[in-house]
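Supplementary notes for students who missed Thursday's class. We covered one full example, reproduced here. Read the sequence, then the structure, then the short commentary at the end.
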Amino acid sequence: MDELALLHGYQTVGAMLVGIGIVGFLARRNMIVMFLSLEMMLQGISVTLVSWSRFHNDWGGQVLTVFIITVAACEAAIALALVLMLFRRAGGLDVLFWQQLRESNVEPFIEHELPEPPAEPADRWPHLPPAGIEPQTEEEWHRSHV
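Structure (token representation):
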């Protein structure tokens, strides 16, 4: 296989991994998914470094990839500790729960809430009378409710 075509294939896979990781990191608020997206971005960068290293017949990119994998493992351990601490403290893994850890002089981020839907009346559907009982006429209803 042509070396240039192989390089383009690896670069495409690395770019797709980084792109999917960025979308996952920005679109989700769950901390576990955010850390997994960050790991995916690091793996995309590793694939890119290894492909350039192979293309240039140099070991530098592969050695740097070993360091990236080491940093990713350390990051995963720290992330697990942070996730466990946050889950114990707040009972959820939403990123907005980190508001409690801010310094006192930093204003908290306030997300705009959706407006409450209008309350529907409880008797919005017509009810049929039970068998054997005739429904009231309008006049009888008005007399009984006035």
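Commentary. The two ends are 91 Å apart (CA to CA). The chain has a mean pLDDT of 82. If anything here is unclear, bring it to office hours.
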